[in-house]
Amino acid sequence: MNDISPPMNVEALPLFFSALQQGLKSAPTEVRRLFHGRGRTVAGLEQITCDWIAQHLVVQLFRPVSDEFLAHLEQGLHQLAEQPEHSHIRSISIQHRYEHGAPTQFLLGEGESKVEVVESGLKYWMNLSSNQNSGLFLDMRLGRDWVRANAEGKNILNLFAYTCGFSVAGIAGGAKQVVNIDMARSSLSRGRDNHNLNNQDVSRVKFLAHDIFKSWGKLKRFGPYDLIISDPPSFQKGSFALTKDYQKILRRLPSLLAENGQVLACANSPAVTSDFVIDGMAEHAPELNYVQRLDNPAEFDDIDPEASLKVQLFSL
């Protein structure tokens, strides 16, 4: 999907600051997206987002902006921090995601590599100084909530586990076991930290730092699974490309599932629609029937739902 958004409009910035003011009132204790310009619901602000992360305001720009826009943005953020009701803001940063290395400028405070956040009552570590991967994808909140609500007594497989957010939610919901697999050992290490942060029993959790495509036999030994979660990256150089490799995952799922097992299959690329996974499942795992698509959080509203995160449930 080509991005043909017009340049950002400085005259639209009051809408941005109004959203921040409202967001800081409604969810100051939990991690939240306060403004999602990427959903293209506000004309002139299509390339800016803002997250509230443990008393840190994190603004991201996804395209270059004019000097005038940046000056007004910085001025408005300073004015926000100066308001007495916002004295709890510890830092304000602007991350320039369009530049190599996604450099971050701090208007207030400084970056931290490990901050504790709360989401739906559960705790996670996030990284403010990372150029992209902060440790928790905020648009997946309702997916984690669903897993927590449906985990009781289940054996769960968490493919592409990253920092094990689904695993934390599953154990909180009473899962019998969660098996996490991801090539990045450092991400799994942070996942273990997330479990410990919630005082969870890690003897019920496995952390496998392996290539999924070379580990089907090992994964089968820990099964069968009542629930499999597949939340792959859209693209990971040298290891995974959604449009080319997802089918290899889908065809393996039936052999790993228990009777009446379920699959939560996710795709977060705007280049594919929900039919990409539905059609792929029908072709490569026809035993699995489409049940429903989970909602995304309201704060991630998108003018085109098919361009946003797609979390879809299938069942044997």
Automatic annotation (TrEMBL):
Alphabetized Gene3D superfamilies for the sequence: Vaccinia Virus protein VP39 (3.40.50.150)
Keyword Signal tagged: no
Superkingdom: Bacteria
InterPro entries documented for this protein: SAM-dep_methyl-trfase, SAM-dependent_MTases_sf
GO BP term, pick one: methylation
Alphabetized Pfam families for the sequence: Methyltrans_SAM
CDD domains: AdoMet_MTases
Keywords: Methyltransferase, rRNA processing, S-adenosyl-L-methionine, Transferase
Annotated S-adenosylmethionine-dependent methyltransferase domain residues: 32-314
GO molecular function: methyltransferase activity
Name of the protein: Putative RNA methyltransferase
Organism lineage string: Bacteria, Pseudomonadati, Pseudomonadota, Gammaproteobacteria, Vibrionales
SUPFAM superfamilies: S-adenosyl-L-methionine-dependent methyltransferases (SSF53335)
